[in-house]
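quick one before i forget lol
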Amino acid sequence: MVVVNTGDDFEHLGLHISPDVDTVVYALAGISDPIQGWGIAGETWGFMRALETLGGETWFQLGDRDLAVHVERTRRLRKGETLSSITTDFCERLGIQHRIVPMSDDPVPTIVRTEEGPLSFQDYFVRRRSEPVVTGLEFSGAEQARMAEAISSAALCGSFSAIVICPSNPYLSIAPILAVPGVRSLLEQRRFPAIAVSPLVGGRALKGPAAKIMHELGKQPSALEIARFYTGLIDALVLDHADAVLADSVRSLGVTPMITNTIMREPRDRSDLAAQVVALARSAARLP
């Protein structure tokens, strides 16, 4: 089961856009664009060119095949279907064997507080290219949101054997999930290993504004700060060789460090790292 952040979701051109959900769906369907890291490989852009000619908003790029997903999702949401059920159906139609679960079927939009005032996440991240100085983050509606039924059902049935927190931005991609009532307590009261992979290597984010945001929020961009963020929620943190010097400090927080290569340039790098994380989960009962 892959639980995905929906704090990035927004309405654009009258359509419901779920960027993180779609990125995971496209990746597991084997159709994602490996160069951009988002969207569909071999995409065409006739719609965007026509929209530009008409003077429409083009700051958020929607490819022609990608657009079909947003149109169909929006149509079905307006008929009363849930984001979870629509996502499950899309996965089945695309031949995906994994269960991809939005963190909640209720809206929990991320609001980025900046020195220029509050911005919706996509305004900050895409339109403004993460340039404004961040002063705080808000996950609007999180207190009233309900955890996705698939997550709570799996928890009640004791279905989890391990949880892996991928090397996503903890503040923008993981914190919204943790803000949904029940998710944090699920990790705090876990009877299974939980492992996170640090998104920082040598104090730098390989992709995205994680290090920038940490600095602006008064936190030292480092794998050690990532360990502090997850303290109480994880048993182990996977660090890159560049951060091996931080291993003892991470261990002092009650988190077991594992040192390996976390930079994923090729498919083999990804599969090797995944195999090591799974092996670590299986040996979690022997963690000191």
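fyi The chain has two domains: 2-96, 158-286.
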